[in-house]
Every structure is written in C-alpha cells, then in structure tokens.
Design goal:
By secondary structure, the protein is of the alpha/beta class. The chain is built from 7 helices and 7 strands; from the N terminus they run βαβαβαβαβαβααβ. The chain has a single domain, classed as Rossmann fold. α5 links the parallel β5 and β6. The radius of gyration is 17 Å and the shape is globular. The relative contact order is 0.15.
C-alpha cells in the first residue's frame, strides 16, 4: 500500500490502459479520480470495482476545453483532497497515410494527444503537491514508425517533450515527471493486423496487457522512483 493517503487523477480511465492504471493505483492505496469522454458505463464499472475496497470517482471531461479541465481538477480536490499524482493517459489513435491527411485530421489528432495533454500537465504543474508525480502515456511509434501512423506518432511525441520540460521546471518541488511508452497492447485501440504481428516481434512472444503498463506507472508514482525524472520508459516486451 505504497500510495496510502495519496490522491491520483487519471485521464481516460474508463477502459484499457487507463482503467488498469486506475485500478492499480487504487490497489496501492490511492484515492482515484478517473475521467471519461464517451464511455460512462466503463468508467462507472471501474469505480464500482475500486470502491469495494477503496475510494474512486468518475468524472466526464472534454480534454479540449481548458475551462472544463480546471473545473474537473477543482472537483477532485473538493471530493478527494489535494492531488499528489496525475497520469495523462487519454488519447485518440488515428491511422492514415500522410498523403491523405487533411487539416481536420491534424486538428483531431492533436486536440487530445497534444493539446489536451499539455493542458492536463499545465494544470497538474499548478496543483500537484510537493513531492508529487506526473506521468504521461506515449507510444512505441515515436521510435519505431509504421506506415500510416505518422500523424498519431507526431501527436504523441509531444508528450515526451512535455515531461522532459516539466522535470526541469518542477524539480525544485521534488515533483517528478516521466512517461511510459507502451508497445502493442491488448486494448480496443490495437489494430487487428498489429495484434497478429506483434507476438512475433518480441522475445516474450505475446501482446502486452494493460496491467503490464499499469505496473510500471505504479512504480513511477511511488517513492521507489524518486530519483527518476524526465525519462521515457519503454514498456514493450523487448520489441526492437
């Protein structure tokens, strides 16, 4: 129970990696606020699971609206207390060759993955208690490009730069900022072809599970990771 007494805020916590992160942080003792965009039923299920032994709330959030984000942080503080941990997990995948990308595609990809994450980090930088933890979720595609994934990878690459900047800006408050970079993970965002190919490309011979990523996030949010900041941690089963 390394996080007992801590309050964690997880965006995109209604399914997949975000839900696994919320459950894991709760199992480590944190009170958890998780957000959702469209999947209210999924978010409520995660909250029910956590509330059997802990404390959690689910909040709707449009990450593209700065005012809404601020009010959501206010509500978390009001209901759970000062925030110690922020995990910016929410994202939107897009697969399209660059030659086919339109202005609207760029706006959609960067709205949540880049701008939404930036606004989350900015609010976190103002709110997180001294000694707190900030974690972003990026993707292996920023290092291992695949056809059709350039726009998505570019939008996620911003997360990596943001945590490096935050590490320097918040270091004097003993706040760490890191990111995890998952490989192919068994969620609704994983394309069918990738699900079939991925096990052949990792020494461990399987697709990643959301829990694999959640466990690394749990480490980064604990005191055990107090000397790690400004890093992007690969979580990909050794995929080269």
């Amino acid at each position: 129970m390394k996080l007992t007494g801590k309050v964690a805020f997880v965006t995109g916590g209604s399914s997949g990696i975000g839900a696994a992160i919320a459950r894991r942080l709760a199992s480590d003792g944190a009170a958890v606020a998780l957000t959702y965009s469209n999947n209210q039923s999924g978010a409520e299920e995660v909250v029910r699971d956590i509330n059997r032994h802990g404390r959690a709330i689910a909040l709707p959030l449009d990450l593209t609206a700065a005012v809404e984000l601020k009010s959501t942080f206010d509500r978390v503080v009001c209901e759970l207390g000062s925030i110690d941990i922020v995990v910016a997990n929410a994202g939107d995948v897009m697969a399209k060759p660059l030659a086919q990308v339109a202005f609207e595609d760029f706006e959609k990809a960067f709205a949540v993955n880049a701008r939404g994450t930036l606004l989350t980090f900015a609010e976190a930088a103002r709110r997180v208690s001294n000694g707190g933890r900030i974690v972003g979720v990026t993707t292996i595609l920023t290092q291992q490009m695949r056809p059709g994934m350039g726009l998505y990878a570019a939008s996620k690459a911003t997360v990596e730069q943001f945590v490096r900047a935050l590490a320097h800006e918040l270091g004097p408050k003993a706040i760490t900022a890191n990111a995890v970079s998952p490989g192919p993970t068994d969620t609704g965002m994983l394309l069918p072809a990738r699900r079939e190919q991925a096990p052949k490309q990792t020494p461990l011979g399987r697709v990643g599970a959301p829990q694999d990523v959640a466990d690394v996030v749990a480490f980064l949010t604990s005191d055990d990771a107090r000397w790690i900041t400004g890093q992007v941690i690969p979580v990909n089963g050794g995929m080269a």
